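Researcher: Please translate sequence to structure tokens.
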Amino acid sequence: MTPRKRILTAKRLYNDAWLHYRDMSREVRCDKLPEIWLADKGKTGYSCQYLRTVSDTEQRWVDAEIFVRDDGEFRFD
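Model: Translation complete:
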């Protein structure tokens, strides 16, 4: 059996987002999250953004929704 909801922390999410995007971007930011919250598997309703280089003169913030996988880990899309 696996739990339907997961207890998650903002600190863990921010750390996981940085680890996920650090090779693509020097800047990552996420929605302000509660310090601890209970989340269903799937879409969390929160997102992170990373700064993507589009050209030599242009950069853009790219939104990535945050999901919780079946194993309780985060997934960014």
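Researcher: Any highlights?
Model: Helices lie at 10-21.
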